[in-house]
Amino acid sequence: CPYCSMPVIDGRFAAQGVTEGGRALSYDAIECLLDHLAGHGPPAPTLRETWLADRVASGRDAVAWLAAEEATLLHHPRLRTPMGGGLAAFASQDEALAFAEANRLTDAETLRWAEARERAAERPWVPPY
């Protein structure tokens, strides 16, 4: 991960950015990509595409990608993600809410990519350790 330097160990929470030159950058968590783009860590890359792992269709070793702008993000502090930010991506709001209900994530919220980026500009998604 170009933000936290950890390997991508669980594809269900991965994110990817493609630079203007076509280089793919793999992030171990959605929150790492958001925080990197918001300038909270190393210098942010200029990306032409951003992709998020579909939590339902992906596995630990195989990722089904969603365009970030089309995905629905689910946030809940008890959602265990590699970096602890509690974010996962879904193809639809219905899938996100069904996942939250099935996992007893009461008061989970859904966000669009633009909303998550706005929040990252205000404060990092990755919690301080």
Characterise this structure.
The chain has 129 residues and is α+β, with helices and mostly antiparallel strands. The protein is 22% helix and 23% strand. It contains three helices and seven strands, in the order E-E-H-E-E-E-E-H-E-H. It has helices at residues 30-37, 93-102, 113-122; strands at residues 15-19, 24-27, 47-53, 65-67, 72-75, 87-90, 109-111. The strands form two sheets. It has a four-stranded antiparallel sheet with strand order 2-1-3-4. Strands 6-5-7 form a three-stranded antiparallel sheet. Helix 1 crosses helix 3. The chain is globular, with a radius of gyration of 13 Å. It starts with 14 loop residues before the first strand and ends in a 7-residue tail after the last helix.
Strand content: 15-25%
Sequence of secondary-structure elements: EEHEEEEHEH
Helix count? Answer: 3
Q: Could you estimate the helical fraction of the residues in percent?
A: 10-25%
Shape designation: globular
Radius of gyration: 13 Å
This entry's quaternary arrangement is single chain
Q: Strand order within the widest sheet?
A: 2-1-3-4
Mean pLDDT over the full residue set: 94
Q: Descriptors for this entry?
A:
globular; single chain; 129 residues; 3 helices; alpha+beta; 23% strand; four-stranded antiparallel beta sheet
How is the topology of this model organized?
Blueprint: E1 15-19, E2 24-27, H1 30-37, E3 47-53, E4 65-67, E5 72-75, E6 87-90, H2 93-102, E7 109-111, H3 113-122
Antiparallel strand pairs: 1-2, 1-3, 3-4, 5-6, 5-7
Helix pairs in contact: 1-3
